[in-house]
Amino acid sequence: MNFTAEQKSQLAKLMATENLTVQHQKISTARFDPQNRVLYLPIWQNMTGVIYDLLCGHEVGHALYTPASRWHDAVVDKSKPQNYKSFLNVVEDARIEKKVKRKYPGLATAFKLAYQELSVRDFFGIKGRDVNTLPFVDRLNLFSKSQWTATWINFSAQEEVMVKKAQAVETWEDVVKLTDEIYAYSKDEQMRSEEHTSELQS
């Protein structure tokens, strides 16, 4: 690596405009604890500069724009299904990446190059799979992570409307509203899939 962890830690703190706690650990990916203001970065042997910039930039996006109390309330809400957090995270990731790139335009190139590199490494675990057989929320996540450039990912007309909404979210309220819509659609999608499987087996 042509950079030090300390240099990148300082960069993350400057970008977040606060004295975050930055910890480097042997974890599978980066994450941010919005309540305790701790940014966790992975220790990878094959870490490159653009991937590090992506990880820092993404988590700084959460630090800047994800409201800690509202995120906590949403993920501990007993009225929400257990996997609701995963849907919420997909939409919130799209929002914070857009906003952090808007604040720091130089990140746009790093994000694009890093996600391309992670794709080559099969970071998302889709090698050999037909992406277009994945559930909508997974296709949306991959499309978002491609910086909306993966034109080989297909969406129905109804899904295209939700994709455009994901690209347009600006506020936390937008995120929750769209997450609820996607979750409701995905429940119907799952039911249709189960019905189709049942028909094939009958």
State the gist of this model.
With 202 residues, this protein is mostly helical. 61% of the residues lie in helices and 6% in strands.
Describe what this molecule looks like in 3D:
The protein is mainly alpha-helical and 202 residues long. The chain contains 8 helices and 3 strands, in the order H-E-E-E-H-H-H-H-H-H-H. Strands 1-3-2 form a 3-stranded mixed β-sheet, with helices on one face. Helix 1 (5-16) packs parallel to helix 2, helix 2 packs across helix 4 and helix 4 (84-103) crosses helix 8 (172-201). The chain is globular, with a radius of gyration of 18 Å.
Shape: globular
CA-based gyration radius? 18 Å
Share of residues in helices = 55-70%
What fraction of residues sit in β-strands?
A: 5-15%
